[in-house]
Write a structure and sequence with these properties.
The protein has 328 residues and is of the alpha/beta class. It is built from eleven helices and twelve strands. The chain binds adenosine-5'-triphosphate, iron/sulfur cluster and magnesium ion.
Length: 328
Amino acid sequence: MVVNLLEVKNLKTYFFTGKKVLPAVDSVNFTIHKGETVALVGESGCGKSITSLSIIQLVPQPGGKIVEGEIIFDGVDLTKLSEKALCQIRGKEISMIFQEPMTSLNPVLTVGEQIIEVLVYHQKMDRKAARKKAAELLELVGFPRAESVLDEYPHRLSGGMRQRVMIAMAVSCQPKLLIADEPTTALDVTIQAQILELLKDLTKKLDMSILLITHDLGVVSEMAERVIVMYAGQVVEEAPIEALLNYPLHPYTDGLIQSVPGISGHTERLASIPGNVPTPDRYPSGCRFAPRCKKAFDRCFKEAPELTDHGDQRRVRCFLYEMGDDTP
Ligand SMILES: Nc1ncnc2c1ncn2[C@@H]1O[C@H](COP(=O)(O)OP(=O)(O)OP(=O)(O)O)[C@@H](O)[C@H]1O
Ligand code: SF4
Ligand SMILES: [Mg+2]
């Protein structure tokens, strides 16, 4: 049975800087089911990180604010909770890992001390039990000699090992949802594959959902069951992974796929989408993708398309599909 774990409803997260209002996330809607891995993709600046930070109510300050919308997690609207209640949820029910683990690990504490701290705070364990559990967690994420890693400082570990430590900390309280924001981008290709394999393995072992944020569709094809494509602060397409890769509807998704070697059948990376993502103060008034779209026609420059259902768990924001035209 499909059970909703997270529902992001009409989320609007704006930045207020001086006289400017920047709609970084502009009416975003999506759902993650229990146990499911969903990828959020799009080029740099599309609003992926701000969407994920909005979910855990950590919108960057000063200036960032959720101005509208609901974040329903396990039946509770997180936008309505106090900071105290949110602290109980962050790191326990929803965990987050980032691109560069060094920024989230404390350089003056050993790996063990940091994991133990989480377990003592959230699980109310005593330090001895927490140390034992910390070693088990390090084993779970693939350290064969876990005991000795406990007493290491983060700078003594490689990038891949640090990311494993972050993952151990993130899953230490068996979160229902793990938000992974570009978790492998800073790592070399072999290590990337190992970390993705580990995450995949953990979703099964821990019955966890993942929101995987990446600009790399190659990573998505390995990991995700469903994909949400964002462009200029909005969702432009959503589909199960195979359908999306084999049969993208939105011209932007098609461009993203064309630019990934391997997936598209090309061996080299192609710069197939000309131009750049507009910043939130420069969104065009019609379809936000129109200035870069090969399929754009008159109407696209005057009106903004809505996100519409396309059957088979698919949604798309493009005028081409209003008329029943299925060829992007
Ligand atoms: N603190 C801030 N103040 C003002 N604008 C911001 C702030 N943080 C992000 N933005 C803007 O919000 C938009 C979305 O940013 P976000 O970080 O979510 O992009 P992203 O999709 O995660 O990109 P990347 O792939 O580079 O991480 C961008 O235009 C960015 O410039
Ligand atoms: S609405 Fe027009 S400009 Fe926008 S993606 Fe579709 S065809 Fe391209
Ligand atoms: Mg980001």
